[in-house]
Write a structure and sequence with these properties.
By secondary structure, the protein is of the alpha+beta class. The chain is built from 10 helices and 27 strands.
Length: 461
């Protein structure tokens, strides 16, 4: 009887425990209803041309006849892709990933109510993998950002997007980690990613990651996968990074980042001991670029940066996250371990060089452009050397509905030829564009990410 009574008591407790546990799980229905109207599906179209040649083995053909067996063809090829995004202001600004719209000639944005708009690119920032779009509409539903610095591991989060083209799909999970360092192929590391176990798949890119208050804490950007689909490792760009990128693209048409000019490495247990640290921490300076902000401030090779601008540098990857978010010209303190002693160094943060990938974005209003609808500036020596160019001009703004926009020219492109004349510098460009004939289809040659391309344009009367 005693055993039966105990068993009955356990069963009664379990019966009450299950509903109690169920009640503690979040209900996402209201959150989805309130936020999904501001989530969009993005479809892109890229036009490309390719040359194909059908040839017989040249060694079997007499030299005089070889040209007869070379038949070049031009084939038009269209590449379509898709992703997600969300509206950040009621007047039509939309945020998505840079890689979602990179190379696109046409961008279509579709809302949950089936309205569809053609979007123009306000600006892109490949280093954060963010892009700001604009559609011609007013009174749109818009989402608000949370303070992502307050996000904690274990919090419930929810994503809405279009995985594999399945429109406006919701998936939920928890924050698995914060401040993840994921260097790019260029070994750049300016985003402290949020890691989650939310089911994110191709097509979710650019979509919002919500907290339980319906605020955007991140922008879904990457997944780690061996199968092509979700395995529970997804990464989102923090809302605070996105907020800063949006502000800069709107205000000045580009994203400036802080820069020190150092090469750093992780501090392991043995290094920590040799530098007089009680535990592995900080960013060890391996190399300092001559004339860089670090060099001018008095930082030295062998210094271990433990704090920068008051923020602890627990791992080497934390340093570019902190420095990159600082406005160039900021004067901050760096706490370092040097030769076994703690030292404070005053540092004036510099501006991260554009390097060989000038993603200078256009502002929301580029109507002040020239006859092509462009605003251009001179190339610096670093850009010329990186792209092996003798001349050209850098496109900084493209006016909507302009001849250049119709040709697919984008901020960051380098124009090397107008019509049939080479562009050597800004003066040459201005002279050539002023003399261009109207109602005539002309070629324009430009470089994008170091690769040359041709398009055609026409200036109409």
């Amino acid at each position: 009887m005693h055993f039966k009574g105990l068993l009955l008591s356990i069963l009664v407790l379990c019966a009450f425990a299950v509903p109690s546990q169920a009640r503690s799980l979040p209900d996402f229905t209201q959150l989805i209803e309130e936020t999904s109207p501001a989530v969009v599906k993005i479809n892109t179209l890229e036009h490309a041309k390719r040359n194909s040649q059908r040839q017989m083995p040249p060694q079997n053909i007499p030299e005089i006849f070889r040209h007869l067996f070379e038949m070049p063809e031009q084939r038009q090829r269209e590449q379509r892709s898709m992703g997600s995004g969300f509206i950040v202001s009621t007047d039509g600004y939309i945020l998505t990933n840079h890689h979602v719209i990179d190379g696109a000639d046409e961008i279509a944005v579709r809302l949950t109510d089936h309205r569809e708009f053609e979007a123009s690119v306000v600006g892109t920032d490949s280093r954060s993998d963010l892009a700001l779009l604009k559609v011609d509409a007013k009174g749109l539903p818009a989402l608000k950002f949370a303070d992502s610095d307050k996000l904690k591991v274990g919090e419930w989060v929810l994503a809405i997007g279009s995985p594999f083209g399945l429109d406006f799909t919701a998936s939920a999970g928890i924050v698995s980690a914060i401040g993840r360092s994921i260097p790019t192929e260029r070994n750049e590391n300016y985003v402290p990613f949020i890691q989650t176990d939310v089911a994110i798949n191709p097509g979710n890119s650019g979509g919002p990651l919500f907290n339980l208050d319906g605020l955007v804490v991140g922008i879904n950007s990457q997944i780690y996968t061996r199968s092509g689909g979700s395995i529970g490792l997804s990464f989102a760009i923090p809302a605070n990074v996105a907020r800063d990128v949006i502000r800069q693209l709107k205000e000045k048409g580009r994203v400036d980042r802080g820069w020190l000019g150092v090469a750093i490495q992780e501090v392991d247990r043995n290094l920590a001991q040799s530098f007089g640290l009680s535990k592995p921490a900080g960013a060890l300076i391996q190399q300092i670029e001559p004339g860089s902000p670090a060099d001018n401030s008095g930082l030295k090779v062998g210094d271990v940066i433990l704090k920068f601008d008051g923020k602890a540098i627990e791992r080497s990857g934390d340093l570019p996250h902190v420095v990159g978010l600082l406005p160039p010209g900021s004067k901050v303190k760096a706490e370092v371990m040097r030769a076994g002693k703690r030292k404070t160094v005053s540092v004036t943060v510099g501006k991260l060089p554009v390097g060989d990938e000038p993603h200078v974005a256009s502002g929301p209003d580029a109507s002040q452009g020239d006859r092509l609808g462009l605003v251009v500036e001179a190339l610096d020596d670093r850009q010329k050397q990186a792209w092996r160019l003798d001349g050209g001009v850098l496109v900084t703004q493209v006016a909507p509905d302009s001849p250049a926009a119709a040709a697919g020219i984008r901020p960051g492109d380098v124009i090397a030829q107008l019509g049939f004349e080479p562009v050597t510098d800004v003066d040459t460009y201005q002279q050539l564009q002023a003399e261009l004939p109207e109602d005539t289809l002309l070629p324009i040659r430009f470089y994008r990410d170091g690769r040359p391309a041709y398009r055609s344009f026409m200036i109409k009367k």
